[in-house]
Structures are given as structure tokens and as C-alpha cells.
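Researcher: I'd like a structural prediction for the single chain below. Treat it as a standalone chain; there are no partners to consider.
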Amino acid sequence: MISRFQLPDIAHDDFKATIATTKQAIKTLKENNDIDSLAQAYTHLANTHYHLGNYQKAQLYWKKGNKFIHSKTAPSILSYSYHTIGIILKAKNKFRLAQQAFINGIKACPENPHPELFIHLSSTQFELHQFDKGRANLEKAQQVTNASPELDELAAHYFIQEGKYKQAKQKLQSALKSFKKIFDENNPNVIRVHSSLDQLKSGGEHELRIQITTGSLFYSFKEYINIFIALYKQTVDMFGSIKAITKHPTTDQYLHDYQFFSFTKCCKSFNAFSALINKGTPEDAMVLLYAIYRNYLTMAYLNKNPKQVLPIFKTPNNKPVALIDLVKLSPYPEDKIIHKFLDTYLSDFAYSNFTTSEYYRSVDETYYQYSAKNILLQATEIGLYLQLLIIKEISKLISNDKWKNLVAKFIREATPLLVARIEVTHKEDNKLMAAMKKRLAYTN
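Model: Treating it as a single chain, here is the predicted structure.
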């Protein structure tokens, strides 16, 4: 990258010296009011902290550098800035945001993009299960950059995902050979690639494919859960007016009010659900999901039978429809199959069912404990699944095309991730797997 500020070399381990040199340069650049070089220097400082694993500091310095970016900033500096925030976000498992940063980095300097942008973009799209896009960017990376162990390992992952294990083995062997020239046997890169090769050699191809393609789903699920929470809030703000307060309300107005009441309730519950996940208490998060699940069934039932909303308003003490009846009356036949799983699984956490006591016992089975067991992935999987079903129900009352297109976009992004997990979680129950996948189908 051409600039008045010459980047210190960080290809070696002397990162502390690099930080000191860059900070000293920043002082001089401030005195000279060299805006472009300040942007680059702060970004380089962010990059250095990224290599040290200090991701919070890295993001802080990137923000400082970004303040000096302006409309006439050199394309190479702008591309470098996007590349840096991209790798930081990727390291923090914020894959969707990282993907956009890498795309912006390529667009900023289309004639001479940083080669690593294509590698990082491809690996991020692999995590997001955008395999076709990722494979295309992998091929671009192979065209514009020199061979590297990182590139070989990434290519191996795509071959494994495609079931081409012979080609994957060749790429992993090449990556291992290159890594060993750089690192000793105890380096995490060497150990990781060695382990993948051992699994391929011992007939563990299927397990390796699952491990590689679903390993980071928890972080992607969390990211999309937060996106949909924001979308739920926006939906309530935009369309959640109360309509059944006229002298002669219609059935449609009653339905609108009740559905938005249920949807708003779900919005608050998902907000609490996210907080419990962040605190590492998935068991309690499951309790909330049980209540949210009933809300979904009620919304689906009323959308199919809108006149049934009238007794709710006219006779407030009217008993709610029983859960099993909501399932039987659901407009979706698949719900009857899915209910057997969701009701059993979620109710076990909602009540003191002793079958869940394993989640409250120590590993050696000698005492009870309140620290979380590793079911965070299951909780976020079901949470995101219900979010998608519920927003589809409220969309039946909304005619705003811009909103519908936005919802459709996020559903299309999140669905492949859920499908990948469902295929692993329910591989022993083809009927349940097919039902859950069918309910995720979306038409705008």
C-alpha cells in the first residue's frame, strides 16, 4: 500500500516493538496533521493488536483510525481499513458483519484488492453456509494470491463439505507440510490439520464434515437472534397501533390487536431469552421458549380462524384454547409432528421434570451445581427457529413491501444455518427433520 506512512513489519513476533514504533509515528503525524497517514497508522495499530489476540483494543484503534477516513481517502487505505475491521469481527464470531466488511474492502479497491480479502471472505461465507459464494471467492483467492497453508486448509474444508474427501486429504497434507515449516508440532495450526487428516484416514469423514460445517453455528445463531429482536422491535414501532378502540371494531381490528399483543409479548420474551443466553443460563432460556412456543401456536391458530378472536375480547374470563387443541387446529400439518418434540423437550425445562436433572449435576455425578451445561447451541437453535415462524405469522397482517422484503432477506440468510443444524440434530428422525425443514420454507 502506497502512503507517506510506512507500515512497520509485523510478519515477525516483535509486536510490542511494532506498537511502540506506530504510536511514535502517530505523534508525529498528529503534529503534521497528516490525516490519511493517521488513518493508516491507527488501522495498522488495530491490526497489530488483532494478531496479539487483543480484539477489544484492536476494534478501539480501528474506530480511531476510521474517524480520519474521508471521501478522498486513497482506495488502498480504505480497503485496508475494511480488511482490518473484517478480521476483528470474524475473530469475535460476528460473521455476518465481517462478511460485509470484506465485501466493502474489495469494492473500495476493485482494481487491486488486498488478496487476503478474498480468503477471509470465502472462509466467512463458509461459516455462514453460503457455500456457492464462498467457493467462488476461494477460486478468486487462488488466482490473486500465492499458495499458503491457510488457503489449502480452506480449500480442504470446501472439498469436505462437498464430500470430495480424496481432494480434501491432498489439500490438508499440503497445508500440514507448509505449517510444519513455520511452526513446531505443538502449534494449534499443526494440531488442528493433523487431527482432520487423522479423521479422514480413520473413516471419520461424516463426523469431520459435521464438525467443520456446524462448529460455529452457535455464534451465527446468536447474531441472527439479535437481528430478529431488532426487527421485532422495529415491527412493533411501525405497525403496532391499537385498532379495536373504535365504537364498532371489526373482526380484522380485533385480530390485529390480539396478534400484535402476542407478537409484542414474544418480542419482550426474546429480549430476555437473549440476556439469559449471554449469561450462560440456557435452561432458564428454554423455559421462556416454552411460553413463546404457545404464543406461536395461538397466532397460527387465529390467523387461520380469525373469528375465534372475538370471545377473547368479549369474554375476558374465557378459558384459553388448550395447547393440544391449538396443535390439532394448526393450519400447518407439520406442527403436529414438530409438537411431539418441542412440547416434550421444552416442558421438561419449564417444570421440575427429573429427566432434566442431569443439567444440574456435576460431571462426576456427586453433587448438584448451578453452572451451565453445554446446551447453549440447542437453545439458540430452537429460539431462532421460533423467531422465524412467529415473524411469518405477523407478516400476514402487514402489507408494507419494504418491510416484507427486509424480513425475507434475513429469513433467507438464516434458514440455511438452521437447516444445517436440524439435519444434524434430528438425523435419526427423518419425519421430524422433514417437517421442521418444510416449516422454514419461505415465500414473500
